[in-house]
Amino acid sequence: MRRILDFLTRADDDRGDVPGWVLITLMTAGLVILIWALAGPALEGVFQQAIDRVTGF
Q1: More confident residue, 7 or 14
Q2: Whether this model's pTM surpasses 0.85
Q3: Alpha-carbon distance 38 to 13, whole Å?
């Protein structure tokens, strides 16, 4: 009986970390959006230059 109670107590402790994972997920999404906004124009220029070179042949 004691083992079951210990297991249930530990199982409840794992639930408390959900807000932490939500915060990490949101912060990661924010960083991706920020990096994309900053690097997007440069990447678009590189892509356009590569397409121009390929279609120029």
Answers
A1: 7
A2: no
A3: 40
